[in-house]
């Protein structure tokens, strides 16, 4: 995106780390009261907006990372939400397959004696 500038790969890693940490801490503290106000009906929208705000906070904290405007931050937040959903769905399918394989495989009796 032309509105987003990252100086180096290491800056991108640092930005990703900070977004993750701030989203897990500060984002959680912001999302909870907002979800109470919306009665959890707009939970996904609140998560996107809060993640975009966190991206703008990281933009203010790191000089080698720049996001020009709120809309590009919102697009990044949507991309993060899609990636997170795909990873969680893949993880759930893996756990389900692992559980089903454990049910199918017979256990061997131990020989005590």
Automatic annotation (TrEMBL):
The keyword Electron transport does not apply. The keyword Transmembrane helix applies. Keywords: Membrane, Transmembrane, Transmembrane helix. It holds the Pfam family Phage_holin_4_2. The chain crosses the membrane at residues 12-30, 36-58, 70-87. InterPro entries: Phage_holin_4_2. It comes from the Bacteria. PANTHER family: SLR0284 PROTEIN. This is Phage holin family protein. It comes from Rufibacter glacialis.
